[in-house]
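WARN retry 2 of 3 for item q-0093 after timeout on previous attempt; input resubmitted unchanged.
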Amino acid sequence: MDTGALDELDLRILEQLQQDASVTNQELAELVHASPPTCMRRVRRLSESGIIQKQVAIVDPAKVGSTLTAILEVTLDVQSAESLQHFEHTVAREPAVLQCYRVSSGPDFVLITQVTDMPAYHALVHRTLTAQMNVRNVRTFFSIHRSKFNTSIALG
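OK item q-0093 returned
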């Protein structure tokens, strides 16, 4: 299913689920003005097609003791396809790495990480970057205040 095949009902369903995926099917149907069976079919189709990748709980990092957000720019020595994929696979296995982007015009990767404190950050860097023979440079920015955090994608 491509995004061009999404109709208005699909978009309303996606908007609602992005705000609160814990609503029951009955509640969702009421919110988007559709019947419960129609909603269930649509959500199943959106999930099976990969448009809805997964449904998760968003946890407040401070309330679970994970108060340090570090944004890392990583440059590799060798940028071969194999080297880039190896790096991506390595950081994908690391729970403290929340997001990994391969970027252009600058560093090779930008990582968004969440750890408990500075010793945990140093351990993360040693585990995932220092131990990597192909990492040339790491530049880190530490968040002092998060003014916006959202997981919703603007639709329409």
